[in-house]
Amino acid sequence: MPKYLEHTPLGSTRQLRRWHRARILQAIRAEAGISRLKLARKLGLSPSAVTEVVAELLNEGLLTERPLPPTGQGRPSVALEVEEKRHLALAWEIDVDRMAVALLNLKGEVRARVVLPPAPMQLDEALALLQQHTAPLLAGVRVLSAGLALPGLLEPAQGHLTLAPNLGWADLPLLERFQEALRSLGLVGIPAVVENEANAAAYGLYALGGLALEHCVYLNLGVGVGGGVVVERKVYHGARFHAGEVGHIPLDPEGPPCRCGKRGCAEAFLSYRRWQEDPSPARLQEMAERLAQLSAMVLATLDPERIVLGGPLIEATGEALLEAVQARLPRYALAVHDPAQITVSPLGREAALLGVGALAADVFIEQMSYEEA
């Protein structure tokens, strides 16, 4: 359960009730088919309190119920589940090689998905295209929250995009523009969140990827190289919100030029574009050497349980690149680090899109915990 739901909040009875609503919904998300009685025991609440809150959530359409098979004498229990088809989180992805739209339920299951061409030159044009392809998906749907992921340096709380070099964008009020686009779709007043694509993908690994990791690093190998850092089940943004920018760690000062103006950055060696220029065994081995070097630095600095690889380069090279990196890791890493700590993302190319959808769904639960019902 998220940390903001683990400790009883200080405040009024109303605040405590909102917190219980969020805890109950989150617990049912985590354990589909749970009964009211088991839910009360799990959360340490009275059965009457659980029954009252569940009735509210059923009335709002956020939950459904079905009878459980009888187990003997007495009244049969009823299984509680989150509603799966109508109450959804909206996810948008903007990237250099594609854009995408998805609608996910609170269990993280995709109910609709559209993949679009690469992002146009201007942010407003990209948002207009995403709006256009989202509108037909909204009939009969209640959008609970929305998230937008893109590759760039941004401050999620303020929603300010400092720089997205591969998109050619800088100094933009991203969250404000995103909310304007949502309002144009009639989605007014819903929670909205913006996040760096690698951070979103890292979050998705925990929320949807079946990786029960307290600490991990996701490396997105695409047009650029981005990193998402998860510490104690939360995305770590750093003091200036720029944590995870591993693509600009210099690996060789005499190496190829990088878009940032330096030479020999990890991104200059490991971009998908570079692979497309020469998809040869020799290029794969060279990339494996550099990725092993970068991975050793990440392991020594952050000590994650796992480094998870994803993005277009991994989609193109798959197990061949992974195995070559694992074979080379001992050359650079400390003896305490195991090559098996480097793995491929189970979410594939969809990691950022699904991750920002999962993040949006969790933001909805978090807001429920402190806002009026």
Describe the overall structure.
The chain has 373 residues and is α/β, with parallel strands linked by helices. The protein folds into 3 domains: 3-82, Orthogonal Bundle (Arc Repressor Mutant, subunit A), CATH 1.10.10.10; 87-196 and 356-367, ATPase, nucleotide binding domain (Nucleotidyltransferase, domain 5); 211-345, 2-Layer Sandwich (Nucleotidyltransferase, domain 5), CATH 3.30.420.40. The chain is built from 11 helices and 15 strands. It has helices at residues 13-30, 36-43, 47-60, 123-134, 174-184, 197-207, 266-270, 272-277, 281-302, 312-328, 351-368, and strands spanning 63-67, 78-82, 87-94, 99-105, 110-116, 142-150, 153-155, 160-164, 169-172, 192-196, 215-221, 225-231, 234-235, 306-310, 342-344. The strands form 4 sheets. A 5-stranded mixed β-sheet has the order 5-4-3-6-10, sandwiched between helices. Strand 3 and strand 4 form a beta hairpin. The longest helix is centred in the C-terminal third of the chain and has 22 residues, at 281-302.
Tell me the layout of helices and strands.
Blueprint: H1 13-30, H2 36-43, H3 47-60, E1 63-67, E2 78-82, E3 87-94, E4 99-105, E5 110-116, H4 123-134, E6 142-150, E7 153-155, E8 160-164, E9 169-172, H5 174-184, E10 192-196, H6 197-207, E11 215-221, E12 225-231, E13 234-235, H7 266-270, H8 272-277, H9 281-302, E14 306-310, H10 312-328, E15 342-344, H11 351-368
Parallel strand pairs: 3-6, 6-10, 11-14, 14-15
Antiparallel strand pairs: 1-2, 3-4, 4-5, 7-8, 8-9, 11-12, 12-13
Helix pairs in contact: 1-3, 2-3, 4-5, 6-11, 9-10
